[in-house]
Amino acid sequence: MPGYDPLLDEARLYAEALTAAGVPTRLECFETTIHAFLSLGVLDVAQQGRRFLAAEIKRCLFPEPP
Question: pLDDT tens-digit profile of 24-50?
């Protein structure tokens, strides 16, 4: 199903440019959402997105030892 974010193409290009520049990058798409869906906290998908972001921030700040 296609997403409804009018900035998705730009986000993909930006992620590709970051990766090409050697910046660790992860692009996670929530395909059925609109841009800025995280601000709609009553939606299950927004809560899922917030949990994902929190886990990624924690992973980046406190990486697992090898």
Answer: 999 999 988 989 999 998 999 999 999
Q: Nearest-5° angle of CA 49, CA 19, CA 1?
A: 45
- Kindly state the helix (H) or strand (E) to which residue 55 belongs, with its residue range: helix 44-61
The tally of CA atoms less than 13 A away on the side-chain side of residue 54 is 7
Structure tokens at 61: 């700040």
Q: Cβ distance 42 to 33 under 8 Å? A: no
* DSSP for 36-51, written as a single string: TGGG-TTSHHHHHHHH
Q: Is the pTM of this model over 0.70?
A: yes
Question: How many whole angstroms separate alpha carbon 18 and alpha carbon 66?
Answer: 25
